[in-house]
Write a structure and sequence with these properties.
Elements (H helix, E strand, L loop, with lengths): L18 E5 L4 E10 L13 E12 L5 E5 L11 E3 L3 H7 L19
Antiparallel strand pairs: 1-2, 1-5, 2-3, 3-4
């Protein structure tokens, strides 16, 4: 399988409602943060070490024709140590910006108002 290309990210603090891209060997697993816990006082000076609870939504993978596509559901869970980054721009657009006759627009995405 072809390795996925890195997605555009913007430097920001991770919080509830953010979307992550977790790079695995076969795809980029998309997750939404549903819980952040920084109560461990030993880690208080290291916000990047706070525990985050993600819900896994799907994956961005390389299609046979070479394009990146979002697919709901995952076939392999990410492993401890896999890199995670905030999704923005193109990554969020792949997940949410769909078009077609069966789609209606009901609002804008909080994380990116252009979507």
């Amino acid at each position: 399988m072809t390795q996925t290309k890195p997605l555009a990210v913007e430097p920001a603090r991770i919080t509830i409602g953010n979307f992550l891209g977790i790079e695995t060997a076969a795809s980029c697993v998309v997750a939404v943060i549903t819980k952040v816990d920084g109560t461990d006082r030993r880690l208080a000076r290291k916000p990047e070490a706070c525990w985050q609870g993600p819900d896994l939504l799907g994956k961005i993978r390389t299609h046979e024709n070479g394009t990146l596509v979002f697919q709901r559901g995952i076939t392999r869970n990410p492993m401890i140590g896999d890199a995670g980054r905030l999704l923005s721009g193109d990554g969020l657009r792949m997940v949410f910006d769909t078009c077609g006759a069966a789609i209606i627009k009901i609002g804008k995405l909080q994380q990116d108002a252009s979507i």
